[in-house]
């Protein structure tokens, strides 16, 4: 068996890139479902239908929704996604990555149907928790599926496409909300909700035509099917030496990992050494936690209502602009993650975000209600979103797809994704109490909180996150064994797992 580390991955055709990239469409479900509620909560008809009458000094529409109801409606989606993400690990190992995503789209559609039919908070909340379960499944499994089928040279860029799809979903939700928010009928909120059926249909239909992950087939011992799937993804014949060498490397790595650990949930919590499973799980869990603690979802969940209470006119338009910035700047990460690396982007992004947030907090606190404070809020929130969209947004998802060995990959990604949704839920629930005029009323001071958490983001990335750029998923395992996070970017592959296994057999 060759020890040429350049032969562990087959060349790939444009058709192969398109096959790998389509799965990123799953991010649309995530982004749109997260984003539509931002505008819907600010619609006058929605407040009248789901809220209560209040003095116009409280809300110009004469109606408002209780803080606890607003908090519950927004955050309950993340409760569903938390459990969906956790269950996704077992489901993806049991029936495969591809079929699991298709089933998730069906569950998501049931939740959407309940939301469309709702005229009271109870049914709306029930629909959002079921839809959330489906989104949780999609968010955990799509990342793993994309990481397993994408070629190493552009894996970061392709997985970053998932984050871009999230931003597109957020933008589409903002556009639809902008179009319907003045309608004085049930359609004002039902149209934005019902459009989600389209995204689920496109993703589920498209996946019928995509191959299963070759690495899942290897894990199941179905090597002929693994070769066929790999050949489709790379645009090469199954008899090609490139396909044989890549498959041999995947098999050898899986056999090596299984020789030192197993694939159960308990194995996720064993080993705190440089390449230990538990250490990897902790890195993924905390990485996703800190991604949420950047505070970006405060803008995407509550931006419209926060801008309204901050005295900014055209709050819906400003919300649309922030989403547009998110969409336009995220593709910069396609270049950045492969040129600069994941780790460096995390460090740069944390610095950019904390500077912007402290500026917004300082100006808003010193000059509350002024035109200068409003202008500063809009401008530096846009810079802040740029900092997130090009760094922490995509990089956190890329790294968790690359970090885990094949035996526990599905469960590791599930735990990391569940962490994202757990903190999404926590922050979605407590934020209204922090900023609502009748509760904490922090106003611009809330940005001091997000600025402080971004300091934590920088420290975590510096001390714990390794560089995985340009490595196959199998090479990431070896890199973690031989380096520390601060030296990982200098590591160079020097031996294949297939050659290592062959040497052991000869010695035996």
Tally of individual helices: 22
Cross-sheet strand order for the largest sheet: 1-2
Average pLDDT score = 84
What is the rounded distance between the termini? 16 Å
Helix content: over 70%
Output the helix-strand order: HHHEEHHHHHHHHHHHHHHHHHHH
Number of beta strands: 2
Morphology: globular
Largest β sheet strand count, sense and barrel closure: 2 strands, antiparallel
Proportion of strand residues? under 5%
Structural category is: mainly alpha
> Low-confidence parts, pLDDT < 50 over ≥5 residues?
none
Radius of gyration: 23 Å
Overview of the structural elements:
The two termini are 16 Å apart. Helices cover 73% and strands 1% of the residues. The chain is an all-alpha fold. The longest helix is centred in the C-terminal third of the chain and has 32 residues, at 371-402. The protein contains 22 helices and two strands. The model has no long low-confidence stretch (mean pLDDT 84). It has helices at residues 14-22, 26-40, 44-50, 67-95, 97-117, 121-149, 155-180, 187-194, 196-207, 214-219, 223-234, 241-260, 277-293, 296-309, 315-329, 332-339, 342-366, 371-402, 409-435, 446-464, 473-482, 497-507, and strands at 52-53, 63-64.
Write the layout of secondary structure elements.
Layout: H1 14-22, H2 26-40, H3 44-50, E1 52-53, E2 63-64, H4 67-95, H5 97-117, H6 121-149, H7 155-180, H8 187-194, H9 196-207, H10 214-219, H11 223-234, H12 241-260, H13 277-293, H14 296-309, H15 315-329, H16 332-339, H17 342-366, H18 371-402, H19 409-435, H20 446-464, H21 473-482, H22 497-507
